[in-house]
Amino acid sequence: MQETKTSPVPLTILLAAEAMNVLDATITQVAGPAIHADLGGPASTIQWFGAAYTLPFAVLLIAGGRLGDLFGRRRIFLSGVAAFAFASLCCALAPDTAVLIGARAVQGAAAALVIPQTIGLIKTLYTGPALAAALGWNGPVVGLSAVSGPLLGAALTELSTWRAAFLVNVPISIAVLAAGRLLPEDRVAHGVRLDLQGTALASLGTGLMVYPLIDRWNWALFTGGVAVLVVFGFHQRARRHPLVEPSLFGHRGFPAALVTSTLFFAVMNGLMLVVVLHQQLDEGRSVLASGLTLLPWSGGLALSSWAAGRWLVSRHGSRVAFAGLASLLAGILLAMTGPLPLALGVGGLGLGLFTVPFFTTALSRVRPHETGSAAGLLNAVQQLGATLGVAVLGTVFLQGHSLTRTFWLAAALVLATMASTVLMYRPGEGSPQGS
Q: How far is CA 174 from the centre of its chain?
C-alpha cells in the first residue's frame, strides 16, 4: 500500500480516463459539418452531435459523484469506462445521425460516472505533498483536454475520417480497464443512502438550465431550472442523507470556488469556440487549419501548468492563480490589437497558471465524506460554465462577427473571476505557507 501511495501509475490511469472523457465533450465542435455531410439528416442535428453528450454529462455529474460514495469509486469508475468504450464504438460505427446522437448520450452519461471518481481516488491514493501535486495535475489535464478536443477532432477528420475520433477511445478504455486493478476501492465509511428525490430535483434543475443554452435561448426554461435548484437546496437541508453534503457550504471558500469555476470555464470554452468560428467563417480556413490556430492556446496551457505544479505554486502560493488570470486578461486584450497567435499563447499561459492553484485550493478542505459531493458539484458547474460560455460568447460573435465586442465581454468575465477567486482564500492564504 505504501508503494501505491507514491507511484505515479494510478494517477496516470485516472488522468488518462479523465482526458479521454473531457476530449469527447468538444471533439465534434469542428468535425460536426463533416459528420453531417457523411450521415445526412437536417442541419439542426449538427448542434446535437455535441449537445447529446453535454446534456446527460452535466445533468448526471452530481449523482455520479454520490454513487461513488455509496458503491465504491473504483467500481463506478471502471463501470463508467466500460460503458464509455461501448458507446464510443457505437459512435464510430453509427449508420445514421439518430444512432450517433443516441450513442453520444450514452457517452455523456458514462462520463458522468467516470469524472467525479478521479478526485476521490486521487485523495485516497496520495497524501501530503504528493496529494497536492496530484491534485495540481487535475486542472491542467481537464483544461488541456478541453482545448485539444477541437484540434484532435479536426486532425483525425481531415487526415482520416470523423469515425476515428471516436474509435481511438476504445484501445485507451481497454488499457484503463486492464490497469484498473492498481486502483484501490474507496467508499464512504459511514452508512449513507442515495437521495432519489434530491437526484431527481438536481437532474431536472440542471437540465432545465443547460438545455436552453445548447439548443435555443429560452429564459422561461432557464429560470425554471434556477427555481428547481433553489427548491433542491432547501430539500437538501432537510434530508438525513442528502445528495450534496451541506457542510461544504459552511465556509465561503467552496461556494466561491463553484462561482469561480463557472466563470473561468465560460471564458475558456467560449473563447475557444469563437476563435474557431472566426477562422472558418471570416477567414475561410479549413477544419484542420482552424483547429491548428489553437496550438498556442494549448501549448501555453501545457507549459504553464507544468511550471505551476512543479515549483511556482510551492514558492508563490495563491499569487500564481491571480497571475494566471492577469495573463489571461492580457491575452484577451492583446487579441484586439496584436497578432492572434501571440495573444492566444499569452492567454494559454494564464490558463495553466490558474488551474493548478485553483483545483488544489478548491479541494484542499474537502473531507472524505464530502468528496463525492464536491467532485460532482465542481465538475457540474464547470460543465455549466463551459456551456454558458459557448452560448453567450458564441451568440455575441455570431450576431455581428465582431471579435472586439466578444473579447470585451470575455475580459469582463475574467475580472469577475478575479473577484470570486479572492473569496476562495482565507486571510493570510496569499503566501506559499498559507496556501
A: 23
Contact at 8 Å (CB) between 372 and 120? yes
Please list, in sequence order, all residues whose beta carbon lies within 8 angstroms of the beta carbon of residue 166, skipping any fewer than 6 positions away: 24, 88, 89, 91, 92
Percent of the chain with pLDDT over 90: 30
Interhelix angle 319-337/403-422, rounded to 10 degrees, is: 170
Residue 194, C-alpha cell as written in the block: 442515495
What is d(CA 378, CA 368) in angstroms, rounded to the nearest whole number?
A: 15
Q: Residue 295 half-sphere exposure, CB side, CA atoms within 13 Å? A: 8
Q: Which of 69 and 410 is assigned the larger pLDDT?
A: 410
CB 280 within 8 A of CB 287: yes
Q: How far apart are CA 80 and CA 17, in angstroms?
A: 10
Question: What local confidence, expressed as pLDDT, does residue 44 receive?
Answer: 67
pLDDT 10s digits, 261-302: 999 999 998 898 888 788 877 888 876 787 788 889 888 988
C-alpha dist (Å) from residue 158 to 166, 168, 203, 293, 339: 14, 15, 37, 15, 26
At 202-238, the pLDDT tens digits run 889 888 887 887 666 778 888 999 999 899 888 887 7
CB 413, CB 263: distance < 8 Å = yes
Assign 100 a pLDDT band (cuts: 50, 70, 90): very high
pTM for this model (two decimals)? 0.80
Would you call 308 exposed, middle or buried from its count of C-beta atoms within 10 A (0-12, 13-18, 19+)? buried
Residues near 164 by Cβ (< 8 Å), separated by ≥ 6?
92, 156, 157
Between 334 and 9, name the one with better pLDDT: 334
- Compute how many other C-beta atoms are within 10 angstroms of the C-beta atom of residue 204: 17
